[in-house]
Amino acid sequence: MNDYMVIGGGVMGLLLARQLAADGATVTVVEQGVCFGEASWAGGGIVSPLYPWRYSSAVSALAFQAQLAYPRLVEELLAETGLDAELEHTGLLMLDTDDESEALSWAAETGKNVQSVSSEFIRAREPGLSRSFTRGLWMPEIANVRNPRLGQALLKSLHSNPHVQILEQTSVVSLTGDGTRILRADILREGRQESLTAGAFVVTAGAWSRNLLAGLGIELPVVPVKGQMLLFRPERRLISTMLLTAGRYIIPRRDNHLLVGSTLEHTGFDKSTTEEALTSLHDSAVALLPELAKYPVTQQWAGLRPGAPQGIPFIGRAGKWENLYVNAGHYRNGLVLAPASAKLLADILLGRRPDIDPRPYDPCSNR
Ligand SMILES: Cc1cc2nc3c(=O)[nH]c(=O)nc-3n(C[C@H](O)[C@H](O)[C@H](O)COP(=O)(O)OP(=O)(O)OC[C@H]3O[C@@H](n4cnc5c(N)ncnc54)[C@H](O)[C@@H]3O)c2cc1C
To answer: Which ligand 1 atom is at minimum distance from the Cα of 187?
Structure first.
């Protein structure tokens, strides 16, 4: 029997498994599809909340710690696996924001680098940007990570870790307890039902977490929020900075690929892409960067964000169960928050003193 069963192999599950195994614990990761195949693959990988001053201090606390942790994480994974998650400090240019003074006050309070910039700065920084943008906010320190590569690197590292077992194409159908402790997970693998046990169980099932916990009488208000994205593959570098306006963004990757995101749709667990989103995202992208009109969209996809109230994730022990924990509900910020969120839960599980106050994320609190 392994010490922990981690249910869900997205960024939350894999980073938690890495943290626990680093402390010598044994971990089974159970993933119903392929690891990093859902929101963690679909996301844009901006290592900051969009408009970070609009978030609560609970989200900022995790974001600040994770932003510091990312360079080391990516370096360690590169050294261990040879796979580069391409953390690129491109900076983020936010155009025509209507709450500039709030942003600058937040920057003064938190010590973050946010600058109000003029059209001259914007043009010098990104000559291809539409001339219609005359004011902006510039955050030079913001990075993006190539999240599918992060997933590949994490998986390669975990596959070679003797403390970690990864079961893909294996779905946890239900959890069974004796009223105090969870005793086993009932799983479905290759059409067969089996039971697996562990010392403790952690639900990192993203948008699906609510369903799993509902069977135990736990009401976790996490809902799927669909996001659609587009990919362009220009043959040359069109921009070197992440651009954001009215909630729509363009992310440049190292190989000149440009990701355009994203929609926010409450359509349940439906992950289909739509013509409407294609047109809307395409129009937003061309309004930012007119030259993009010359290039075809080479890919469109959708993912399900795990939406929680105020975007504050649930991290900690779940309900009355002594050995049941959750790390879910990171909404639009799971990639940025993941290293800090996994560390906080690992600290709780391993009895270490957490360096972030866990109370705002308590799954048992009423929100
Ligand atoms: C379009 C889009 C853009 C985004 N952009 C960004 C961004 O720029 N920056 C950022 O920080 N965040 C971004 N996000 C949000 C981020 O992707 C998510 O918050 C994050 O990936 C959530 O990670 P997770 O591990 O909780 O969930 P997931 O990655 O969804 O992983 C959960 C896993 O659990 C598995 N699972 C579910 N139920 C079971 C079960 N019963 N048994 C076994 N396995 C199960 C699923 O198959 C899945 O693989 C974006 C999301 C989307 C959709």
So the answer is: 42
pTM: 0.97
Q: Which of 330, 331, 341 to mutate to test the pocket of ligand 1 (most atoms within 8 A of CB)?
A: 330
Ligand 1 center from residue 217 Cα (angstroms): 23
Average pLDDT, the chain: 97
CATH 2.60.40.290 for domain 1-88+143-222+309-367: no
20 CA to centre of ligand 1 in angstroms: 20
Which residues partner with 194 through β-bridges? 187
CA angle at 227 for the pair 166 and 223, rounded to the nearest 5°: 70
Top mutation candidate among 168, 188, 193, 208 for ligand 1, by most atoms within 8 Å of CB: 208
The domain ranges of the chain are 1-88+143-222+309-367
The ligand 1 atom at the shortest distance from the C-alpha of residue 40 is 21
* Local confidence band at 10 (pLDDT 50, 70, 90 cut-offs): very high
pLDDT at 230: 98
Give 202's Cβ-side CA count (13 Å radius): 29
pLDDT of residue 1: 87
Q: pLDDT of 81-97, one tens digit each?
A: 999 999 999 999 999 99
